[in-house]
UniProtKB/TrEMBL annotation:
Pfam families: Pyridox_ox_2. SUPFAM superfamilies: FMN-binding split barrel. It comes from the Bacteria. This is Flavin-nucleotide-binding protein.
Amino acid sequence: MSDETTPTGGTAGAVEQLAENTCWELLRSAGVSRLAVWVEDHPDIFPVNHAVDHGTVVFRTAEGTKLSAALADVPVALEADGYDAGTGLAWSVVVKGRAGRIGRAEELEATADLPLLPWQAGPKGVFVRIVPGLVTGRRFPVADPSVWRTALSDAHRAAPE
């Protein structure tokens, strides 16, 4: 992806495709994301606390379904999003790549200081690194809720309870 941002479309609600460096900045600002993995015969999604580390994404977890699926021989995706109330803009960043367990002592030592603070208590001693093959992002204005009003929704609101 280039380092330029490019708006698509010509309307006030245009989606802005984000430069890769902007995507990484936004990922650094979001401590929580969703990890998409393939589990047996279906996709699954898990919330993870993540940290950006030298062009990769790192999270920590425990043994279990999430870890097994992340380390399987299939790509993973990680998505984070956010909203800037000051500008009225929402954003979404997706990292697609391969996940691997961080096992070498020097790598573990380097990741131990990352701000990885899982929400759920319990042993989370496994560190996983996602090496991206593709990083994409977009930013867009959040629509005023009134644009979704229809005659049916107005009638429903007006109906006595």
